[in-house]
Specification:
398 residues; Enolase-like, domain 1; TIM Barrel; 2 domains; eight-stranded mixed barrel; three-stranded antiparallel sheet; 13 helices; binds 2-phosphoglycolic acid; binds zinc ion
């Protein structure tokens, strides 16, 4: 198997137009690169994103220090390591950094390299990334959660809930899930005067309340000839860390009673463990920890022990390496937690998460609306994977 010859970092741009890091890894035979995403509603327990806060030429947002870490310390540290030895690569990266939150090298420097190594190893093995990442050649195509109305810190409107999503239920194929979503989004568009979109491609209208957003989505589902709750459910990401006016357990229980809501993410802020437990034991819908767990195995263990949720949102850049991400997914699945692989609000044309989802048999993927190419690229990648697998393509079930 090929060895790592050199690693190069460069500054490129994400979907919000902000600088981000791309890492390219070279072997004797070729190279592969990966682009690191970036969040807006980031939790305090996430791995550290290194930006040049003092430098004013990119308003403090450039990533040249992280790039220098890739080009020097990391490139030297990984030279001549087998490109397919992901465990060793990630172990060296973690040791080179030596801090809990990857503050020395920056999680952006580390993750870019970790993902690029993975992609290069797949190329060397001449297999698609999802096959390379899979433990036993068994795959599942995820159910998409499409964020069709954007609020919170992802839009300049008055909705404080960050994401209003639709989830197609019980479809036999991914293409059918996307077809239903397409029709609903087009019908919702017809109902709106302001069709501007937010960071994740969903519409970002000013509405009277969160409930009005939910009601509009229900109307667009019905106009499309589907039955809310049966054909299409509603899922929310409250992103409670960002709320000016926190919501109560009773507020959510009332919403669940009134509307066909099947999943709620981050209903409470990241350290409000008791409220999480109270809501999870009071309902049988999906309760998803994003900022709560921060893709961190220690936090997930606490959440499993305390029954704080029944699903985890997985974001590679919350933890910083592919191996640690795979370990978190494994632990979650062994404890019957659903795993939802997620983009960030600042994302790119990189489709790594689509392959990761299929390889880990995660039941769901969250990657925005059917708009903006950084979102659509993940759906297109899944359509390609489904097509490529042909009769072997199996759709996840909830
Ligand atoms: P972020 O949003 O990428 O801005 O953190 C996504 C989410 O909260 O799920
Ligand atoms: Zn979230």
């Amino acid at each position: 198997m090929a060895k790592i010859k050199n690693i190069k970092g460069r500054q490129v741009f994400d979907s919000r137009g902000n600088p981000t890091l791309e890492a390219e890894v070279f072997s004797e035979n070729g190279s592969a690169f990966s682009i690191v995403p970036s969040g807006a509603s980031t939790g305090t327990h996430e791995a550290f994103e290194l930006r040049d806060k003092e430098k004013k030429d990119y308003l403090g947002k450039s990533v040249f220090a992280a790039i220098s870490n890739v080009n020097n310390l990391i490139s030297k540290g990984l030279k001549n390591i087998e490109v397919s030895d992901q465990t060793k690569i990630d172990k060296i990266l973690i040791e080179l950094d030596g801090t809990d939150q990857k503050k020395k090298l920056g999680a952006n420097a580390i993750l870019g390299v970790s993902m690029a190594c993975c992609k290069l190893a797949a190329i060397e093995k001449k297999v698609p990334l999802y096959k390379y990442l899979s433990k036993n050649n068994d795959y599942l195509i995820p159910i998409p959660l499409l964020n069709i109305i954007n609020g919170g810190v992802h839009a300049k409107n008055n909705l404080d809930i960050q994401e209003f999503m639709i989830r197609p239920e019980k479809t036999n194929s991914f293409s059918e899930a996307i077809r239903r979503s397409f029709i609903i989004i087009q019908n919702l568009k017809k109902m709106l005067i302001d069709t501007n979109v937010g960071d994740e491609g969903g519409f970002a209208p000013n509405l009277k309340s969160n409930e009005e957003a939910i009601q509009m989505i229900i109307e667009s589902i019905e106009k499309s000839g589907f039955e809310p709750g049966n054909d299409i459910s509603i899922c929310l990401d409250v992103a409670a860390n960002e709320l000016k006016h926190p919501k109560t357990v009773e507020y959510f229980l009332n919403l669940i009673k009134k509307y066909p809501i099947k999943s709620i993410e981050d209903p409470f802020s990241e350290d409000e463990w008791q409220s999480w437990n109270k809501l999870t034991k009071s309902t049988n819908i999906q309760i998803v920890g994003d900022d709560l767990f921060a893709t961190n195995i220690k936090r997930l263990k606490k959440g499993i022990d305390e029954h704080s949720a029944n699903a985890i949102l997985v974001k590679l850049n919350q933890i910083g390496t592919v191996s640690e991400t795979l370990q978190v997914i494994d632990l979650a699945q062994k404890n019957n937690f659903k795993t939802i692989i997620s983009h960030r609000s600042g994302d790119s044309e990189d489709t790594f998460i689509a392959d990761l989802c299929v390889a880990t048999k995660s039941s769901q993927i969250k990657t925005g609306s059917l708009a903006r190419s950084e979102r659509v690229s993940k759906y297109n990648r899944l359509l390609r994977i489904e097509d490529g697998l042909g009769k072997l393509a199996k759709m996840a079930k909830i």
